[in-house]
Amino acid sequence: MVMSTGQGHQHEHRARHKGSTGRSTHSHGHGHHHHDHSGTNRTRLAIAFGLTVTVLIVEVIMAIVTGSLALLVDAAHMLTDATGLAIALFAASLMARPPTSKRTWGFARMEVLAAGAQATILLGVGIFAFVEGIRRLISPPEVQGLGMLIIGIVGLLANVIALVVLAGGRDANLNMRAAFLEVVNDALGSVAVIVGAIIITLTGWTRADAIAGMLIAVLIAPRAVVILREASSVLMETVPDGIDLDEVRAHLMSKPHVREVHDLHLSRISTGLPVLTAHIVVEESCFTSGRTPRLLTRLQTCVAEHFDIPIEHSTFQIEPPNHRHHELNLHD
Question: Residue 160 — φ and ψ, nearest 5°?
Fold first, then answer.
């Protein structure tokens, strides 16, 4: 029985202690990609967090002074964003820690948990904003349009700076994407505040404030749901989008000497870290002719290079045809 893995340092460490087990570990030496730019991402998040907290304090004060729902909702939104960015910053710090013998993947999954927490908070704020907006449409309070306009412009400028800072790291992982989305929603909220303030200042129609608040809510909810869906997909260990498991099985089966593939699993530890495990039944002659190591390399190269999403962390259990009846709870 031969085990193969694309994991780098952690599995290499374990391999040095398995010499007497009859298993050999084959490694391509791939590291965890989510560590590559962790320091830069933490700096980006820290800058965005500082800007968001500053604007939040100013918005709370001005929301009280002007009586604006749009400002109050945007301040609540900013509070959730500040919380979300703090969670993202904390998660990014944990993700930078190396794997240990207790946590063999390190804190890679923290990005998913952090993104899910951010999205949940965002969704709650969106629901509150919409309900409060309906109430204020029915009974509109006095709103000071000029104060709204000033703080809306200040908030938008801060959001634009934060977006520029975060833009370079938004594709790094789900955690950074959720943080970027937080600030995008802030910027859209600031635009809604500015538009509402201009309408109130020019026409005196105070219901524009409630509509602006509801518009912010409409912008928040769908994006929050998308992040939640992707986070839950990772946590439920579903097959990543863009990879067809039947195609993976067929491609493995197409390799010479492979007779059967079973117990095939494909999931993600984090958004950028797909992992695959499978039991590969091969011809008995592979074990006597010395072909198994070459076959192992072919299988691993197959999943790492053939598909649109490279699967660099793969583990294969190579089995003779008569081994299947020794296994419990087999599945395809």
Answer: -65, -40
Name the strands in the sheet holding 313-319, side by side, starting at the edge strand that comes first in the sequence: 25-26, 2-4, 313-319, 273-282, 258-270
> 48-75, pLDDT tens digit by residue?
888 888 888 887 888 788 777 667 766 7
Rounding to the nearest 10 degrees, give the CA dihedral for residues 191, 194, 196, 202: -150
The pair of three-digit structure tokens given for residue 63, joined into one six-digit string: 């929301």
Q: Does the predicted TM-score (pTM) go above 0.70?
A: no
- One-letter amino acid at 34 equals H
**How many CB atoms within 10 Å of residue 227?**
22
pLDDT per residue over 34-55, tens digit each?
Answer: 444 566 778 888 888 888 888 8
Q: Torsion over CA of 47, 51, 57 and 63, rounded to 10 degrees?
A: -150
Domains recognised in the chain with CATH numbers? 2-31+243-323 (3.30.70.1350), 35-235 (1.20.1510.10)
